[in-house]
Write a structure and sequence with these properties.
The protein is mainly alpha-helical and 513 residues long. The protein is built from 23 helices and 7 strands. A hairpin with a 4-residue loop joins strand 2 and strand 3. Helix 1 packs antiparallel against helix 12 and helix 18 packs across helix 20.
């Protein structure tokens, strides 16, 4: 049996899923959320859309256009200076239009306005692969909650530098990336990925290190892996193992019998590991040219199941990301202080994680995610209707804010839920590639989000209606087109995923018969 078929969940359970090793790796992954928020939401504060108008005309310019101070009316707009000349009393001549000869007057500092993500993928993938199936939703939900709290640190950094130049804010946020050096030193590779790629010796070293930190018997834990990958090679290479053992016995004849048995057993295990490594390397090297088409993006596109789930989940990433980031960008257009609005949105984000976490532990990923997307979309459309057609009374503004925040609660839950659900849809060997494709579609959403703020200046209800409709479509596609992964073993390879799908189809046919 190849190493990709090893039951990694059993090894993780044997290692204690909440031992010191897992806790260290888990916290290293989640603290990095500060880097993600600092890079993704920084533009909310340094890319404001300023309000502006033409600068006033000077006294000399007024004289140049033969404008008297009391007999003429001058209007300053964003792009033009309009001068209404009076030829005679109660008789107005054709207006004179000037193209802002003295430039513009900005109410927002120019250094904080617009006048002219790979880290998160690996983090979510490793966290998903770190825990066994029964505890995966519990720990990934906790991870989402910890991630949301790191946004408060970003809010504090932004607030403390609010009176400084944008360069100070950028340097402050960039300094958070120094934390990456600690991850480089202490962060370990995913055990599932090592087995899926046939890197047995590296997997053994990692299990040995984890067993030492968790104070678990390494030999007992590693026997789980040997039962899966060692039997085939033990049968095929019995003669080689026995001859090596015989040579070892002759060379250690003068030693004590107990020491000889111990060393022989150790040699036997080392030979098994070496044979497994060699076998995997030979298999890999011999099939590079013939099976390279089954690796990465080409694999996902060629296989109908992964292709269909990729289209659906990528569409959801696109519409939810553009909606999520638009909430933060539109915080500038809401009444009140920008920093208080942003803090309020951050608290709603944390609240959404607090609600979503027990939901996925109880019901799995699919139902809570669909509910969050659909409810957030409906609230968003209601908020758009109130904004566009409800008038400008204080009561309507209050109702708009209530539905706007409820929409943020739903979309915020869905945004975090996508990061937890998407990695479980792909097998280990292409999980990072699949999540990378989703992230690529999300980056398109990031590029679209600033235009939503500009569209809101022309039609206040249009962005919310557009995004709400897209999210409703995404929730329907997700409900009917994607599977539930709750407490299910993560597939290691495409072949294993194919086998699972064939088994489901066979069971469905048998049920009909």
């Amino acid at each position: 049996m190849p190493s990709s078929d090893v039951d990694v969940d059993s090894i993780l359970i044997s290692l204690k899923y909440l031992g010191p090793f897992q806790i260290i790796q888990f916290m290293l992954s989640n603290i990095g959320g500060l880097i993600i928020y600092a890079n993704n939401l920084l533009y909310v504060f340094i890319a404001l859309l300023p309000t502006f108008r033409c600068n006033d005309l000077t006294d000399s310019q007024l004289l140049t256009y033969n404008i008297s101070e009391g007999g003429n009316e001058v209007e300053y707009s964003q792009c033009h200076v309009l001068i209404r000349l009076q030829k005679y009393p109660n008789v107005t001549a054709e207006p004179l239009i000037l193209d802002c000869p003295n430039g513009y007057n900005y109410t927002t500092p120019l250094e904080k306005s617009i006048i002219s993500q790979g880290y998160l993928i690996s983090t979510c993938t490793v966290i998903t692969e770190m825990f066994p199936a029964k505890k995966r939703n519990l720990m990934t939900g906790l991870s989402s909650l910890i991630f949301s709290f790191t946004i408060l640190i970003f809010e504090v950094a932004v607030y403390l530098t609010r009176h400084k130049s944008w360069r100070v804010l950028v340097i402050t946020c960039a300094s958070f990336s120094v934390y990456g050096f600690f991850e480089l030193i202490f962060y370990k590779e995913s055990l599932r990925w090592l087995f899926a790629k046939g890197k047995v010796m590296r997997a053994k070293e990692m299990v040995q290190y984890a067993a030492k930190l968790n104070r678990v018997d390494f030999d007992q834990t590693w026997q789980i892996a040997l039962r899966e990958i060692g039997t085939e090679y033990e049968i095929e290479n019995t003669e080689l193992v026995e001859s090596a053992m015989e040579e070892h016995k002759h060379s250690t004849r003068a030693e004590e019998k107990t020491f000889e048995i111990k060393e022989t057993t150790k040699l036997q295990e080392e030979l098994k590991d070496e044979l497994v490594e060699i076998k995997n390397q030979n298999t890999t090297s011999s099939s590079v040219t013939s099976s390279s088409k089954w690796i990465g993006i080409i694999t996902i596109i060629q296989y109908s199941y992964t292709r269909s789930i990729s289209i659906i989940i990528m569409f959801n990433w696109l519409v939810i990301t553009v909606t999520y980031h638009s909430f933060f960008l539109l915080s500038e257009t809401l009444s009140g202080n920008l920093y208080l609005n942003f803090l309020f949105l951050c608290l709603i984000e944390i609240s959404s994680c607090v609600i979503y976490w027990p939901a996925i532990v109880r019901f799995g990923h699919k139902r809570p995610l669909v509910t969050a997307i659909f409810s957030g979309s409906v609230f968003l459309i209601i908020a758009a209707i109130l904004k566009g057609f409800g008038g400008s009374s204080q009561e309507m503004d209050d109702c708009f804010m209530v539905f706007f925040m409820l929409a943020m609660l739903g979309i915020g839950s869905a945004f975090g839920g996508l990061y937890l659900y998407s990695p479980e849809l792909y097998p280990t060997e292409v999980r990072s590639v699949g999540l990378g494709m989703c992230s690529a579609s999300a980056r398109i959403g990031n590029m679209m989000a600033p235009f939503a703020r500009m569209l809101a200046t022309y039609s206040a209800w249009a962005p919310s209606t557009l995004f709400g409709t897209g999210c409703i479509i995404g929730s329907i596609l997700l409900l009917w087109g994607l599977p539930e992964t709750f407490k299910k073993r993560l597939p290691q390879t495409i072949q294993e995923l194919k086998h699972i799908e064939k088994s489901k189809k066979l069971m469905a046919l048998e049920a009909k018969v």
